[in-house]
Amino acid sequence: MSIVMGGIVTGLPHPLLCPEDNPGWAELRRGFDAFRDELAAAKPDLLVVYSTMWPSVIGHLIQADPNPEWVHVDELFHDLGSIPYRFSIDAAFAHRWRDIAIERGLHARTVAYRGFPIDTGSITALKLLNPDNQIPSVICSSNVYSDRAETVVLGKSLRAAIEDTGKRAAVIVVMSLSNRLFTDFIDPADDRIHSDKDEEWNQKLLQFLSEGRLEDTAQLSREIQRQIRVHKVVNFKPLWWLSAAMGQHNRYAGKVHAYAPIIGTGAAVVRLTPSESGGGDKEYDEDDVEVFHGDRDVLTT
Amino acid sequence: MSKGTIVAGALAPHPPHLVYAENPPQNEPVAECGWETLRWGYERMRADLDALDYDALVVFSPHWQTYIGTHFLGVPHFKNRSVDPIFPNLFRYDYELDVDVELAEAICEAAQNDGLVTKMMRNPDFRVDYGTIVSCHMVRPKWDKPIVAISSCRSHAYYSTEVMQEQAIALGRATARAIEASGKRVVLLASNSLSHRHFVTESELPEDMSKEHITNHNQYLWDMRILKMIREGRTQELIDIQPEFISQAITETDSGSFTWMLAAMGAPPIPGEVYAYGTVIGTGNAVVGWYPQGRSK
Lengths: 301, 297
What we know:
The complex is a heterodimer.
Chain A: E1 2-9, H1 14-17, H2 23-42, E2 46-56, E3 60-63, E4 69-72, E5 83-86, H3 91-103, E6 108-111, H4 120-129, E7 137-143, H5 148-165, E8 168-174, H6 196-210, H7 214-219, H8 221-228, H9 238-246, E9 252-262, E10 265-274
Parallel strand pairs in A: 1-8, 2-7, 2-8, 3-6
Antiparallel strand pairs in A: 1-10, 4-5, 9-10
Helix pairs in contact in A: 3-5, 5-9
Chain B: E1 5-11, H1 16-22, H2 36-50, E2 56-65, E3 70-73, E4 77-83, E5 92-98, H3 101-113, E6 118-121, H4 130-139, E7 147-152, H5 155-158, H6 161-182, E8 185-190, H7 217-231, H8 235-240, H9 242-249, H10 257-264, E9 273-280, E10 283-290
Parallel strand pairs in B: 1-8, 2-7, 2-8, 3-6
Antiparallel strand pairs in B: 1-10, 4-5, 9-10
Helix pairs in contact in B: 3-6, 6-10
């Protein structure tokens, strides 16, 4: 088995639907295109997407409809147009991943329902990175209540499923860096990162990622949540998942294909390839969890 | 043209479990039973609302999340399938509904004139959120009244509860003004639960009521406090207490829907009719009606 490539991509639809409206969005589109070409050259036989734009409450949901097909409209950017999609999902892998997640104490289930609303982020990523469905894919939700331990175990369960099935996989998280949108409509020409603070943090994250320091960046998740995330969920977790899936170290070759604002947020396309070199390993002070034991009910008397 | 009127405001929570347990022909999954207290409460509220002979439902849903301004459905007719992304095992619903676009545009314009950021949604492929569908189905399963659907701009998350309150109150006042100018008789729906901490697991049979209870006692106490205020007609106090309620009971009123509805009615000092209270996967839900003009037409 192997994970041949990892990555981080924005989930906002502008690089897909209207890249021509802003130079930064066009740059992001070129970044997606470059990443798409690298993926194709690596010839993975599985593309796994963890989307922060697919929230779940009851554990972790994994898309397992072999050919989900619909016309999607974003709930916020509906005026940018409709997005017809049809994807090729590796349902057998989805089921195997679910089983291993359950074995590790997680609540997980697959979904395969006609008309299930695949989120804008997953659609954007799959249409731009895998436009002809050459690589069978799987999509996973982001549980709104889960924190680090549960998310790390979810990432490890994916790694175990990839080992178990002998796949050559690429793993992608759909996320923004700073995620604060402008709360009024702006002219696309006026787009910029929402604040200098967001910009500085985004640059620091991109520096770490370009140096291959994925686990270091994951260890910063709680601080990232405090500094540059709108608190819509309990924590910032996609990098915990990605690092756990990819092996929890800093030995990667990182490439920032693109970085630009989308309506104030920090949008990026970043590729990570396992490498012998990298940023070295730091000392961390949080548990390295293998099995999730659930809520501890500390409030229960 | 006579002045338009808000004939009722309703707290109309949207757990998809309620539609699931009703087994309407539009919903694919089939249930044995479940959440009867809430469903029978909805049944009683439906009868009271039907007696009012209203023209349209105006619903504010937390599950249409638009971080840039408040959006309004602006297409006359929708026909599509709604699958709940959280509980797809329970809610796969084929809907067909009409929108009162004229009233939606009037509210949108009134809110914009008051300084709020607003937008009409004109894409015919848009899928209406399941919160709107569940609340409207439970209030009017015949779907023979046009609706106005309003999104939540989530300013609670982006700024603070206090900013959300100010925006929701302003939106409520604009809504009332637009309804008055429309000459229509309208029912408002606040599509939200009270306390909103879910269980993170689900029993094998979702409708197994032996597993259903509030997530924790703290939330129950808060829900009861709110219901006491509702029953005593302390409506302005209900608005004023939202920051504390939201902070302590993790409530779904953080979307602004409840404050919007109370503000649109002018926070009348009249008791709400509590038709039911019950829990759904640990969250606290109440079905409540307010009748500013009295019960009959």
